[in-house]
Amino acid sequence: MRNPLRLFGFGSSDRRRSPSGRAYPSMATAPRRYEVPRAEPLRPSASTAPRRTTRNDHREVNWRRRGMIALTSLGVIAVAAGGVALFRSDLLRVRVIDVNGTQVADPQAIAAAAGISGASMPTLNLAHASQNIAKLPAVKGATVTREWPQGIRIDITEHQAWGYWQAGPQRLVIDEGGNVLEQSRPPAADAPTIVEVLSGTPNANGVAPDTDTVKLVNRLRTDGTFDRLQVKPTSYVFRRDRGLTVIVASGPAAVLGDSSNYDFKVRTWQSLLDKVRAGQVPQVQVPSRPASTPQDAARGVQATAARSGSSASVSEIDLRFGRNVVLR
Asked: I need a labelling partner for 94 at 20 to 30 A (CA). Which of 69, 105, 259, 286 fits?
C-alpha cells in the first residue's frame, strides 16, 4: 500500500533539512494547472445584427425622399390647378334661381335685381344680392342662400299694409310704423283710417304721416283698451296742433294728443266714462291741488245731476293736459 503522505510530499527520500534538523517536503514538484475551455463569443443573428450602411444605401434613401417631395408637390399643384379650373368652369355657376314668399312682387324682377345669374357659386356675394332685392318697393327683406351645385334660393318678406292715412283727397297706404308703402300686401278689411285735418295750405313736399299717432292708434287697437272701456271707435282724427282724437259710438270723443302718459290717460278716460254712464253730468272744475291718480283727476271734475230730468251731454274729453282734464 502506498503511503498517502507521498501525495503531499511527505515520506519521500528527497527531504530537506532545516537547521533544527526537521525535514520539509521538497517544492520541486510543479503545481498542477487546470484549463477551462474558452467560451465562444455570441454572434448576433442576421435579424438583430446592425446593418452596415454603404455609400449606395445613402444614395437610395436620398432618392426616395426626393421622390416623395416631388410627388407631394405635384399633387398640390394639380389640386390647385384643378380648383382654379373648376371655379372658372360652368359647373359651379348659377343656373337656377328659386324665389319664394311673393304675393305682389314679381319673381322675375327679384331675380333680375339680385344680379346673380351666371355668377360663380363659390365667390357669390349673398349680402350684396339681398341688399339689391330689398330696394324693390314691395320687398321688406330678402334672404339668399346657395343650393349646390348650381342653384340659388331667395326667400322674400313683403311689406304688409296696416292702414291708411288720408289728408284731403290724398289717401296713403301705411304700415304699423307709419311708413308710406308704394307696393305691399293689402291691409285687413277692418284696417283703420287716420284722417288728417289740414289747416291752411298743404305742404309742398306732400303729406307725411305722423309716426307717433300711427303707433298710438295701433296700441289702442291691440292692447284691449277699447274692450275695457266698452267703446267702439268709429274714426281717428289728427290735427297738427292738437294730435289724435278718437271718436267713438255712443259716447264722448277722447282727445289723447300723443302717446305720452298713455296709461294715465286711459285710466282717466275710463273713470270719466263711468261717471257719464252713471247719469252724472261732469262739469269742468280746476282742482285746488294736483291730482296724483286718475281717480283724483275724475273727482276734480264735479258731477251734478241734470235739471228737469234731462242730462246734459259731454261731447269731448280732453286728456292732453295731464291731471287737468277738460270736458266739452
From this structure: 105
